[in-house]
Amino acid sequence: MIRLFASKIHRRAQTFFIIGYLLCSLSVALGEDSIDSGNLTISPTNPNKSWSPKRDLYPDESVSLTVNVTSSGTVNGKAFTMKDSPAAIFGGSATLWTQTGGGGTSFNFKALNTGLEPKTETVTVVAVWEEVPVPPSGKGGEGGEGAGRELQIIEGSASGTASSERPTFTWELDPRLQFADGQSQISFSVTAAAAGTTIKLQKYTIKNNQGWPLNMQSPSPPNKVNGIIKSDSPGKVILRIEINNIEQGRSENEVAFAKLDLAVERFEGGAVLSEDRLASGGTTSPPHELDPGTLVIAQANGDVNTGSRSKLTLKGDAGNPKEGTFTLRAENLPNIAVYPASNGGSAITLPHTWNATEFPADSTFYVGATSFTGSTNYQDGRLLLTYKRTLEAGGSEHKLEDTVGAKIATISLSSTKAAVDPAFSLTNPTFYPALGVNSWGNIYEQASVPACVIYYKDVINVDFEVQPFTVDLKFGPALQGATWSKVAGPTSGSLNGSGSNVAYKDPDKGGVYSFDVTVIEKTTITYLVLPLAGAEVKNLIQSDLLKADAFATTVVSTYNVLERNLPSNGNRWFVNAGAGDYLGRPDNTNSRTFWKLNQVSSNGMGAVATWFGYPTRVGKMSNFMVGYAARKIGVLSFSGWIAQIIGTSNDPSAIQSWNAGWDVGGGADYTTTVSALVKDIWNKADDKNKRLWPNPLALDNHVPRATHTDVDREFSSPGFLYMTSP
Amino acid sequence: MKQIAQLIILISLTFSQLLANPLQASADPPTFFSYVNQQWLEGNKKQVLQLAEVRLKSNPNDLASLLIELDYAVSFMEIKRIKDLLPVVRQLTLSTDTPNFSKEKKLLIADLDAYESLLPSITEQMAQDEARKGAIKGKPLSSEKFIVALEQDGLVPALTSSETSIFPTR
User: Fold this and answer.
1) A561 is in which domain, residue-wise?
2) Can you tell me the distance from the alpha carbon of A383 to that of A335, in angstroms, rounded to the nearest whole number?
3) What does the pLDDT look like over A194-253, one tens digit per residue?
4) What residues 613-672 of chain A have any CB closer than 8 A to a CB of chain B?
5) Which residues of A touch B106 (CB under 8 A)?
6) Reading across the β-sheet that carries A246-250, which strands appear in turn?
7) What is the 3-state secondary structure (H, E, C) of A302-313?
8) Domain-embedded: residue A519
9) Considering the domain boundaries, does residue A23 fall inside one?
10) Does the pTM of the predicted model rise above 0.80?
11) Tens digit of pLDDT for each residue in B15-44?
12) Do A232 and A341 share a domain, yes or no?
């Protein structure tokens, strides 16, 4: 029975010896630290002993144990000798202890923590001693002390018990979320702690399951490892620390890389600016996308779709974990506008947030500016694209942000003489919301072009002489290379100065002056408007006097004196259907009147023309012509008659105009009479009349009343002039 | 060819008959004013006056007829008739307040005032010289606005066949 037991022990010992030898070889190769050793000797007199190292074994630490088995001894006067060979028995999973040498009665063991799960294991050497039989001391070999009784057995063991443990690891990760650009880094450190000892981490390795490049620095102090991670692919991981390819711990917190880039052109149509961020932190030297960033030339109030726009690229990545949000917002740019298209369309509302699942990997937008009022100043701010996501543990939110710079520059034309029209809600006279509509394909489209407008009444003296004034042309901010030039307009005034800010001095002719400002290869046109009245009509009216003569001749020859003086006939000839009115807006193709300020009603009334060089309401010309015709047809008492046919009281200028016509009908000189008239009534005229500048060219849009269909674009003489049968 | 010629003659005859009596020319008979004004423009001024006088016999306060008579008197510079008519027309004008006529009343009174102020300066010679212009065709009734307004307000009886028979057939 004992023999069988010993034989089994022997075979198991051989097996563990082989395994142990292999593990021992590995541990030798690793060069583990031996932290303790034990030595046990068992004998028949002292058959049981045990040993444990002074502390737990941490990875790559070992202890050794030597067990010697004394082969014989005497106990209570009886001699014992070893029976069979002693055997080593490995407890538990048998992965901690190995036999490293010996044989027979001497055993060498080592306990090595290779990094496996913490455990406690025991190696035991068992030995059996058997009483030595005493030979017979009598005759014939019979008798003796032991004869006839069973021999005693002493069983002994020597055991070593060791425990393995893992250190406690403390992680630091900064930042938790980083750009997946292959350059930007996440720094990490891990510190190991263990009871009663200092863990040395030089044989540990840090790993991540994404295969991201990871650079570790030599531990100093020995229980701390520093390193950095970079990635050009998005994703998230938890870092692991290993020894012998066996994980010892992991970071509780996730770290992640994400694709994120906000890029902008240098200026409309220009090259994309370089990234400002340095992977190591901070910014590179300008120029880059943050400095100067892009430049947008803002458009004035009323012009929302024609401003310059710079290309803006938003990049996420389809490979980003579809978690979190992307938000585009602006700082210090109250007039910034981000459009989906390079022209037209509506701006997206900022801040604008996309869920990661809907965020396009690579989107192009265009940066422009909303229309602004004259009080809007140059703006220098930033556009920011922020990626936010939660990371374990704890689900805390982390963000990544890329920024580009944007400047909204303003172009301003200003003058102390510039018009302020509260109807357009301007708080500053710099810009005017629109030029007049042009019906002939001219560039001056309504509600599309800002302009500085200066009224005639604000720059003339009592003798109608235009006094010198200056218009300041400014590009804000002042940029090197900005140049101004006059593109078109009347030959009057001069451009003075150079650079961003210049002055246009002393124009004295009405019209539209256009100026180009060229900045960074971009040219923007802007306007100075000295709004012209309708075209000159003196010659037309003079020729109309002849028509009035013909009309009068017919009337006088057809109607008797009573009929000619009847208010009802006067009403029919000069009032009904505008028969006594000039209608529409006199204009000249080469010298356009300014529609915005020279409105006409739907029935063709209200325009201002130029009469003998003075802006004059067309209604006054009608009054003049009726007065002239009344005189010619033999009206006896004009003032009462005209009041009766018009039916309402009239302003002094109207009465003056009728009287002038009456006088000319009576033989007064047309040129002399009207030249005096227009100066006088200008001073009594309303603002609409006084704002407009004299238009030097004769009208070229006169049509007969019968074919007059467009009150905006055509001008016709009173209908009575065309009556063949009054 | 002969048949076509006969057809044209037939159509022409029918058309001329229709024109001869405007009351039969269309489904909608002409209004009093349009008929009278047309006759006036064509120079049938005495007949127009005759029509007014017929109406005034039965209704001396017929303002439309009084205005026609006044227009006739003015046209032919019959100063006495004008003077006789002015008080009557003014009185009726002031006492008539129908909607459309009221809108035109002010201008009519202005006309009456004009007559009042002008008549003293009209000499007999002047009247004789100017009277010849009364026969000129193509001049509308001076009172057209007022008569139209009275007609719109229902103060002008419709034309009768006997009234149209006053005028020459065409």
Assistant:
1) 538-722
2) 12
3) 988 899 898 899 998 888 888 888 777 889 999 999 988 888 889 999 999 999 999 999
4) 636-637, 641, 644-645, 647
5) 647
6) A205-207, A240-243, A246-250
7) CCCCCCCCEEEE
8) yes
9) yes
10) no
11) 444 444 444 444 577 899 999 999 999 999
12) no
